[in-house]
Amino acid sequence: xxxxxxxxxxxxxxxxxxxxxxxxxxxxxxxxxxxxxxxxxxxxxxxxxxxxxxxxxxxxxxxxxxxxxxxxxxxxxxxxxxxxxxxxxxxxxxxxxxxxxxxxxxxxxxxxxxxxxxxxxxxxxxxxxxxxxxxxxxxxxxxxxxxxxxxxxxxxxxxxxxxxxxxxxxxxxxxxxxxxxxxxxxxxxxxxxxxxxxxxxxxxxxxxxxxxxxxxxxxxxxxxxxxxxxxxxxxxxxxxxxxxxxxxxxxxxxxxxxxxxxxxxxxxxxxxxxxxxxxxxxxxxxxxxxxxxxxxxxxxxxxxxxxxxxxxxxxxxxxxxxxxxxxxxxxxxxxxxxxxxxxxxxxxxxxxxxxxxxxxxxxxxxxxxxxxxxxxxx
Length: 378
Prior knowledge:
Layout: H1 23-37, E1 49-51, H2 53-56, E2 70-72, H3 86-103, H4 107-123, H5 136-149, H6 152-171, H7 216-228, H8 234-249, H9 253-257, E3 265-266, E4 272-276, E5 291-294, H10 300-313, H11 315-327, H12 346-353, H13 360-366
Antiparallel strand pairs: 1-2, 3-4, 4-5
């Protein structure tokens, strides 16, 4: 029974409206189309290092916004300083451009795609490397080399890139033979996408441990501070409440600070949860969605008490923030009793703004508030 050809990956598309029977002409057409579209703005096509920061900034978030994003069209180690060149490099660049034009992938995804090409480049027996001469044997050799040189997870990503490249070559008729390629030895690593992790209700997982988890001594110290720090020490009390939430919820402090005003909720499965926003600050079209964080049963009452106390302690602050947001300027209500007089003493500053005794004048000087002679009593 004849073997059916393998289906292409769902994200693999035909870039040209009409394909020629000559694979060389299809290569030329794809290169020409990519140069006309040019979604990477003012890049120099001939250079092996493309700055694509402006093009992919809508996909960048968090600390990555501070970094410049490049696509590197260089050979593999030990020739990583040597650029890919000729028609081979032009086809790779064209497919990267058209892939971005159709799918809008970020820079790391595009670079993994290029990494797959690097291993294909290395797999050729001769220095004369031509895209149309890619065969399943060359792709197999490229995958084996990746497995021999890279860690399991990284090699698996290269295998996936080579699979996509093979499908693109078939779909766009860029090679002389149909590839229909999948690497027979490709295996998803055990620690990929959660595979290999034990469930919390697994009877063999009686104890959960992780280097990032707080140990018992930290929890004990936290408990003492939680009980000892009074509400009157407002700043310290708020800090210990926030740290309590961060540790018992297992969330970054940034997520705790951006939690919406809420109460502990319970779903239809009688699981208690709160809502956070897990993503960091982002640019462009990355949507920041809320996330339900389930609570351990033993911590529910503590989390309820912490959230209720935080709501109470931050009521004045939140009211001020709401006023500023609504009116577009600071809330000057604190200064009403001083308006008729028109000036404040250092003691007034200390009482009004909560500055420690004796530091009112220094507080004003540090904020470049100019001291004027006291007006005439008249």
